[in-house]
Fold:
Amino acid sequence: MDSESEIADFPIGVPGNVPPRLESAGIEIELEMPLSLYHPIVLLCGETAGGEASYLMSVEPRTATFEYPLRSRTPEIWASGALRDPLALLSDHAYLEKKAALNAMELLNRWPDPACAREWSICLAAIADDEASHLNSVMKILTKRGGCLDRNHRNPYASALRDLVRRGQANRELLDRLLVAALIEVRSCERFEVLSRYCLGEGKDAELGRFFQRLGASERGHFNIFLKLAAFAVAPSEVDTRWNEMLDLEAEILAAQPLGSRIHSGLASDNGGARA
Ligand SMILES: [Fe+2]
Ligand SMILES: [Fe+2]
Structure:
């Protein structure tokens, strides 16, 4: 089987579809990883006579409960403060999506081993596509509400996380970059969930509530993928050790952030966040 043309022909976007040529060839299909829950995609691995090949397909969203690995949890009160200036929050959010798309594209050809090059680049191209779509969605809501991007945007939370990357250390640098991406995804997912609950409840903003709900599910899928990709860079035990270190540091970095209408803003000084 020509695996490259199989991917090019693959009917991405058709829920639950299995490529007919794979079925007819009697190839065993194994669900490997959820890639995105906003545009639900899973990576499939098919065993061929010439070795293993990977394919993408779309499936229905998963509904399983998600356990956040985060060391601190955002209290509900944070949402009302962050939404004091919704346009500033949406502008910050737009930059977050832009940076996420750029980061996925930047990592696109940085696979640690040629053996995983196809799987690696397919995953990151799909994430970049998701993030660009998120950016477009945020921009539509922001402009519909009369807002505009703030050209002087800064994200001290993400900057502090990127400072943790061990630059010049080959696969360890790559590992850190993937884990920083995973941290930003999972914290964003948690913040979107808190915002969504508030907007759908006392905030009475159903449009924003549903929007944050949808994006939270997608970022959760990306978080899973970045962690999976980290296992290509170093041994699983090293991923675990560094991941645990970074989870601790992330909670400290977040707690040190100033208050404000930003996705990764800090918490009120008198609550300090609830340690998990
Ligand atoms: Fe996103
Ligand atoms: Fe994401």
